[in-house]
């Protein structure tokens, strides 16, 4: 059960990215710390804000812009790309 919290957990995932090609990454202290932070945020707040992901601010802005444009489309236009309920799962 989620508890009261006063701020959104902010988690720097850069240690995961630095070790993503390392077969022993699960033993890295930085990776362990990030995993513990993710676990705690999911249990306490239910969500979190990620930093250190390496995605440029320009790309984030572009995705937000395209998302807004999509949701401004008429309903019938959005339905043209409707996915089946279990799309991607087999």
Automatic annotation (TrEMBL):
Kindly indicate whether the keyword Iron belongs to this entry: yes
| Domain annotation Non-haem dioxygenase N-terminal: ranges | 8-85
| InterPro entries, per database record | DIOX_N (IPR026992), IPNS-like_sf (IPR027443), Iron_ascorbate_oxido_reductase (IPR050231)
Q: Which GO terms describe its molecular function?
A: metal ion binding
A Pfam family cross-referenced in the UniProt record is: DIOX_N
Superkingdom of source: Eukaryota
Keywords attached to this Swiss-Prot or TrEMBL record, sorted alphabetically, are: Iron, Metal-binding
Keyword Metal-binding in record? yes
Q: What protein name is recorded for this chain?
A: Non-haem dioxygenase N-terminal domain-containing protein
